[in-house]
């Protein structure tokens, strides 16, 4: 792999008419974390930092299922927000669920906007370490480059009707949005410089930093460390997502 301190990576540049990267921009677009470690949050029973599932289900999983991804956050709170984001609902759904009259005797698994306490228990954290640069897909210049890549451009048009990758596309939710982010992950994986993965922001805001690290990076890890269900960072993440714990 080319060094960020020497020659710039040989990753294909945008075609004529688009923004081209200058050597000084490589360090911000292709991020080598100043603190090359992040936090994986998952079930303690899983024994090791988890890899993406097959068939793909995560935002940056390989659409072909040929490589695996470990998801992590720069902090425990960042990791927890990603883990529990699927419990979040929009205000319309919340209002509809509140207004629906439940038939007598009908049992629901758990109320809208809640997280069962059993989902908070039995969790652990691992810290993973890697110094291999990750592509920062939230950077506008990286988005411009990605928009020139055929497999990404086709998926963006097919799934969103847009012509370019932008922050709105990356932070969207739903099946169509995941087709785009998975195509992006595949493109980064196939780049000739063998990047370690993708740096991305949480859908609830760019103040939360997350990482999708490819298995070929073979990151070192420490852990597990059990996490109490009342851990303040977990509770803070739920509060930010507008969720509460169903005791």
Write the layout of secondary structure elements.
Layout lengths: L25 H4 E2 L5 E7 L25 E5 L2 H9 L6 H9 L14 E3 H4 L2 E7 L4 E3 L3 H8 L2 H11 L6 H5 L3 H16 L6 E6 L2 E10 L5 E8 L4 H10 L2 E3 L1
Parallel strand pairs: 4-10, 6-7
Antiparallel strand pairs: 1-6, 2-5, 3-8, 5-9, 7-8
Q: Which strand-content bin applies to the residues?
A: 15-25%
Radius of gyration: 19 Å
Spatial arrangement of strands, main beta sheet: 1-6-7-8-3
Structural class, by secondary structure, is alpha+beta
Order of secondary-structure elements: HEEEHHEHEEHHHHEEEHE
How many individual helices?
9
How many strand elements? Answer: 10
Characterize the structure shown.
The protein is of the alpha+beta class. It has one domain (23-95, 108-246). It contains nine helices and ten strands. The strands form three sheets. The chain has a five-stranded mixed β-sheet. The protein is globular. Mean pLDDT is 75; it is low at 1-28 and 91-108.
In short:
31% of the residues lie in helices and 22% in strands.
Key terms:
9 helices, 3-stranded antiparallel sheet, alpha+beta, single chain, 31% helix, 247 residues, 10 strands, 5-stranded mixed sheet
């Amino acid at each position: 792999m080319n060094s960020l301190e020497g020659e710039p990576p040989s990753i294909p540049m945008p075609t004529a008419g688009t923004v081209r990267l200058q050597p000084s921009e490589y360090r911000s677009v292709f991020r080598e974390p100043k603190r090359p470690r992040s936090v994986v949050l998952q079930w303690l029973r899983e024994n090791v930092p988890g890899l993406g599932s097959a068939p793909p289900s995560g935002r940056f999983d390989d659409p072909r299922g040929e490589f695996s991804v470990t998801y992590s956050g720069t902090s425990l709170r960042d990791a927890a927000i990603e883990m529990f984001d699927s419990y979040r609902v929009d205000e319309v759904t919340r209002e509809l669920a509140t207004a629906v009259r439940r038939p007598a005797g009908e049992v629901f698994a758990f109320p809208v906007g809640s997280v069962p306490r059993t989902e908070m228990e039995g969790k652990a954290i691992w810290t993973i370490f890697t110094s291999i640069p990750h592509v920062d897909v939230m950077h506008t210049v990286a988005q411009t480059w990605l928009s020139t890549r055929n497999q990404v451009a086709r998926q963006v048009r097919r799934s969103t009707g847009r012509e370019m990758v932008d922050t709105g596309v990356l932070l969207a939710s739903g099946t169509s949005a995941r087709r785009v982010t998975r195509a992006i992950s595949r493109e980064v994986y196939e780049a000739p410089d063998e990047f370690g993965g993708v740096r991305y922001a949480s859908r609830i805001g760019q103040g939360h930093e997350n990482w999708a690290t490819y298995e070929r990076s073979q990151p070192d890890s420490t852990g597990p460390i059990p996490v109490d269900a009342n851990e303040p960072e977990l509770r803070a993440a739920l509060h930010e997502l507008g969720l509460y714990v169903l005791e």
